[in-house]
Design goal:
Blueprint (H helix, E strand, L loop, with lengths): L3 E7 L3 H12 L7 E7 L7 E3 L2 E8 L8 H14 L4 E5 L3 E3 L3 H11 L3 E9 L31 E3 L10 E5 H7 L12 H11 L3 E12 L12 H15 L5 H9 L3 E4 L2 E4 L3 H7 L1
Parallel strand pairs: 1-2, 1-5, 2-4, 7-10
Antiparallel strand pairs: 3-4, 5-9, 6-10, 7-9, 8-10, 11-12
Length: 281
């Protein structure tokens, strides 16, 4: 049987992390290793919850922000060094459905040249006492803009522009072939799409696995993510340099509509302080 590791990045969100830990412990197959990469957060420590041990890899903040891409690479390297041959990357806000680990493990074992994405439901605000982990399937309502083949089914050859790191898995051999995330990306935005295209360029295939279902815990968000304006503009420019086109076009257009950014002399530049704009609205 393959050895499966789940890797999660965390900076804060401690309650969400604890709930994810419990959800993994309840699964039909527990991961053999659970690795949390603590980005500039020394309060996250190794622990055991419901019989599942959490390992911690500490990664410092970089001057430009949290090193999401580098942190994913560090977490996967730690898992592979410990003997994992399948790695599941799960966002800290995501609860694992009961069969998520089992479905990913089976798919990566039988089709190791495919990078598998799962199906994600965005949950409403939790009731008092939190989400009932025994009844997550009753809340199943996948993101409408993402493909969902349904439990027991899979889609192949999916658009790399739709790749996101909320929930995905790959065999160790595929990770080595793709080369991991580009660590030039720092902060929020762009590194997912870059990785999706790097996967295709390396000769691997994208697929969506209907049985790997995750549930994104509610938290306040801003649309567009104005608090990440500088990150998005910087990472969009990097993506354009690497791939010859602009990513995150919806966000860039929304920033422009709000007077926060403009396209000048062939590049996107900030035109206002997003914090001041938020305070004035």
């Amino acid at each position: 049987m393959s050895r499966v590791a789940v890797v999660t990045l965390a900076h804060g969100r401690h309650e969400h992390l604890a709930a994810q830990h419990r959800s993994l412990a309840r699964g039909s197959r527990r991961p053999d290793r659970y690795v949390v990469v603590a980005m500039d957060d020394p309060s996250i420590e190794p622990t055991v919850r419901d019989g599942l041990r959490r390992e911690v890899v500490a990664v410092p903040r970089e001057p430009l922000g949290l090193p999401l891409a580098a942190a994913r690479n560090a977490g996967v390297a730690h898992a592979l060094a410990g003997g994992a041959d399948t790695v599941v990357l799960l966002d800290v806000d995501c609860l694992a459905g009961p069969d998520l680990v089992a479905a990913y493990a089976a798919a990566c074992a039988t089709e190791p040249a495919t990078v598998w994405s799962g199906v994600v439901t965005y949950l409403p605000e939790p009731p008092p006492g939190g989400y009932d982990l025994a009844r997550l399937d009753a809340l199943d309502d996948p993101h409408p803009a993402r493909p969902d083949p349904g439990p027991g089914h899979a889609l192949y050859g999916t658009d790399p522009d739709l790749f996101w790191s909320l929930s995905f898995a790959m065999a160790a051999s595929a990770w080595g072939h793709a080369g991991g995330f580009c660590e030039d990306y720092v902060g929020y935005g762009g590194e997912d799409t870059d990785f999706g295209h790097a996967v295709v360029r390396s000769g691997l295939e994208h697929g969506v696995l209907g049985g790997a279902r995750a549930y994104h815990q509610w938290h306040p968000v801003s649309r567009p993510p104005v608090e990440h304006l500088d990150d998005v503009l910087r990472n969009a420019a990097l993506f354009h340099e690497r791939w010859g086109r602009w990513p995150m076009e919806g966000w860039l257009a929304a920033f422009e509509e709000r007077g926060l950014a403009a396209f000048r002399d062939g590049r996107w530049v900030a035109t206002a302080d997003p914090i001041r704009v938020q305070e004035a609205s």
